Amino acid sequence: MNSKTSNAEDTTLLPSTSALTTTELVGRGGLLQDIEGAIGNIDTTHVFYIEGPGGIGKTRLVKHFKDNYPKLFIPKRVLVRLVDLHDIFTNTVEGLISRIQKELAEDNGEADDDCFKAYLKERLALDQARMTGQKSIDLIKQRDKMITAFFSGLRKLANYYRLVLIFDTTEKLFYRENPVIEKLGLTEERPEVLSWLVNDFFEQMPDMVVLLAGRPSLDVKKQSIKSTFTDTFARLPQIKYRYISLQGLTEAEALNYFEAVIRTAEQTGDPKDRGIAEAVQALPETFRRIAFHSLRDEGTPPRIRPILLAVVIDHLCTAGRPLELLTQSTVEEAQQLTRRQREEIKKELGLALINTLRNNAQPADRVLITLSALRLGADATLLAKIIDDNDPSHHAALDSAIIEIQKLSFVKTLSNNRIVLHDEMYTLLQPYQEEAGYSDRQRDRILAAMESHYKEQIEKIRAKIYELTTSLAAKTAEEIDELVGEEVIKTRGQLQAAILEDLHYRLRRDAQAGFQAFYRYGDEAVIEGDDILDIQLQAEVFGFLSERDPEGQKQEIDGLHRADVEADAAIRLVKLFWREDKKRQALELIYKLRTTHRDLIEAGGELAPAELDSWDGYMEGYEARYTRAQGLLQQAIASLGKISTHSIRSAAILARANNNLGYIYRIQGLTHEAIQAYRQALHYWRAARFRIGQADTLNNLSFALALIGDFEAANRHGLDALALRSEYGPRIPVGLSLSTLAQIDIKRDNLDRALRRSQLAHALFSTLNYARGIGLALTGLAETKRRLSRTMTNRQRGQSAQLLAEANDHAKEAARIFEDLMEPDPWIQALIELGCADRDWALRRCREETMLAKEEEATGQIYSVDDLVKKSEQTFKKAIEVSEGILDLNADALYNLAVLHYLKAFHLNLISPENALLYLEETLYPQIEAIILEHFRQQVGVDRGNVTLLLKSEDRNIFLMYLGRLEMLRGRIATQLFNQSENQDTAQLQAAARHYTLALAYHSHYSEKDFREMRVAREKIYESFSKLTTNQLTVVYDAVAAAEQQYDLGRSQMSKFLENNLGFITPISIESY
Fold it and tell me: Which fold would CATH assign to domain 29-245?
């Protein structure tokens, strides 16, 4: 440019706030008339797709129409509503439908109550179904019911109104697309929401008018939204479709725009606006024409985007003078500018505006500076909170400024009262903020304040959810049912909103740190079974990448590697299949990621392969391929164990791998190894601040600790898990924690508390309609009531039969549930418990026949001892049949059948001891030992009968406890034979001592803690030996010593027991008289 200047250079103003939104819509009159005509054509559906680049005036057009549509004289009232697809909650079909319904319901009187009542009911049912973790097929059915109810409500509403629905920012339909799903061939070509719009919404909507506005955009296959809509409406000829390419303003229209600003400012009556009018009025036509030609877009005839004119006026009003660069040329020179020169002027304009706002530091300018960093906008309260400098004298001015800036041409106020800048303003200002050094200072301060705000919000909401959930303990089943309704769902919705918005700003403050937060939030959603939140979180990440790199060409965006995001997205699909119980699809996808699509994983560095190994190992464990599962998990742990400084993601992957390894160990009976793996997992969960993962592992650890008898630690960890899970609402994990705590109490013989916890779990699972949980709670209730029936208090109260009848019913129902679910492990456990209930009932009836008969009359369930025994035996045999191949449960079922035969012979007098012993020694014992010793042969190379090596090996498998129980049963039989023999056969006493010695040796090698089987063993041994004479105790002592020598036990647990409980240290000779 040369040194010639226009007359505008002498224009000087006091700084003030920017240009107002014009009440007139310049250059769009013809289009508005066409839309009005479509509204008047009430028997036809019209769709307008208005497309144009940023700043061209699309949003301004639809907003102007919404606010100023004519009150047409047609048979129906006109209802115009706008849905902005920039809203993060429109990432899913459910979210978009919900937003449409809410917009249509706004200020709509009673009509909506009738029209959308069914939809709201079905929507609540869908939310409740998600809370319950129902299977995907059931969720799909409920989702379809909800969508059907929505369309029904929309058609009803169309009977009252001529509906005009506006969708703004349609390009966001592609921005949030997950390219990995398409790469793996797992979905249709289009994003879910766009697919629903073109395949469902347009086909089923009633006669109405739809306006769609957005920028030109392409999906991953370079298919444009324009061509998508063209194809769609070609097959829907009943809909009148029109595509409109919105153009910028011509020179004449641009000059008219300046005049429109003047007229608008003069009409408000505000002195500040009067100053704006005078400032713009003072700009000569030559300056206005120079601005037009200096900032216009390419093309013939020349046109300009209205947003650039607004920025010119905004700079004039904030700086108090025009942009100097626009005052230094003639109109002719401006007309000759090259495209590159015009881009430089645009850049200078944006930079000057930012510097002016920053330097003025007026309240309104501070609000705009703050909004420029808040892409999602903020309401007045939040804006004031972020900007507030703790000076009370500034509060009134700030509040006034927040109201004032909402009049501006590039400021929008959304339906939720959030204030945002025009999309193009964010695009325009972003590079200039960075060049001005703003990004490193004010922007970071603002985003840090947002991070702090959302952290506080999330903590408050979780505290409220925790309070609601922990109130379960004081509620009845009916009250629990009411609790898990709208209040919890609404509060959880608030939590999801805060999480999504927190992620949005974390990504923009520090992309890598934001991705780490995404990983935590995303995995929490997977663990909770919240697929909608997971989809929204992924959409937010891919939306960020598209925003920073629309063409998808950059491999690194603000320090975040695209390959890491895509590798995570691929593995997240494995997690989704796992959560939906689609294990076959999960294994197929894992295979695909190891073969044809291994590049996706390999590009993800060292973390992605390790995480894939972890999930592959977990899946292999479900298929009972334990050796491969263990190898994969150990490989994952080893590969990441070398990292010195962990990210949230690497720590969480290690935590998950250790947790999964703990699961593989536990189901193989390696309880101690499982405990160590779980503790290692906790170390990493805590480091990653991964609360729900920590809760899962704490629950797993508490159960494993209970198995070895460390009840204090088990209860403590179980309560910690319950507290953490309660922060996420009264969902399935809370019920599982209650069930685990009940199991701990059962094993600890704290039966009253076990009963209450089992009842709570059952009530919650019943409310959530979670069949598996109901079955688990019923099994716990059955065992609790069966054991309570034995207590002296309940026997004296005459409640034994009632408790046994209820235990029987609970176990029977649990077995039916798990048989229907085809889950063998809990089915077997329920069958074993049912067999035990009948067995205990038979024993109680035999011992207290008269009393129990009276109790049974009250229950209406009267059985003979013989009938109860037959039922018990049939049930145990069924459990043995079902458990074939499941070693631990098979051994447990066989053992319980053996106990039944012991009772039949020695307590119920149904068979002779000889027949019982024959069956036990020739059939049941060998089967049990074969199962148990097969494990040890594989694990430590110990053959059957090599007890010494077995007890000195490092293997502390739960099968040692099973061996201990078997030796205890043999010892009790030997004791019974000793007591029943006429001369009290010393050989039987010696056999009992030997078996008891081995029992305590096996038990103590498994665990030194006071687990239930150890307690039972000590009680039975004391019961067996406490009334013996000194000479008889000497026989026991000698037999114990012989066993110690034979099996190289040293001073055994049995010797210590004799000393501590019977005071028997060494034999004492007493002189005979």
Answer: Rossmann fold (3.40.50)
